[in-house]
Amino acid sequence: MRPEQPARSAAFDRSTPCAAEHPILIGLLADALGTGDVFLDVGANTGLFVLPIAEVVGREGRVLAFEPARDAARLLRSAARARGVLFQVSLYEMALGDETGSHELRADPALPEDTTKRSLYVDGPVVAEVPVRAFDELVRSGELDLARGIDAVKIDVEGAEVRVLAGMRETLERHRPRIVVIETIEGHLNRAGSSVSEVDAFMRDVGYGRMNDDTHRLELNAVFVPI
Question: φ, ψ for residue 74 (rounded to 5)?
Fold first, then answer.
């Protein structure tokens, strides 16, 4: 049985292609995961992936959720508590990238109230100055314990996907998650100085290829599996 979908915020419009792809991605992740597994959600927002996947992995599993915006993180934590999955969720209020530092998190100028559109690489109103860390650095420093590995990854960071990937190359090569879901919107990637082709090239370099599944016809996200 597929997990129940979390309640959407007002900003989550089911008429958009991104919203239409959400249940497909949840289904693919749920099929790849089971009780006791570890899921990494980069750009967790208010929990659209965290909540249902936390139910899939159960209390024996673990969800590592990275969300730099304090208001979104607060809503995620509250929703996880209400849904009874807070025990297995570890929430890190920071952005991931390819080096240590800090960066202004900005709202989309056209949709400033939409928490799903915030980015380090958009010219909109500043939401906050947020810490940025490389995932591999967190592991090497001992701040993050990956003794149980990582079984699945989802990255949706409004353009900074390649930077996040560069900062977790060692983790991907060492732990070989079964599935990696990445938002691949060309315009978003371009504003951070990268592209969809660069995402594909990076993933090929670490031994992953796009899932060959004509059934789902994803347009805004790509699903990668080991090759």
Answer: -65, -45
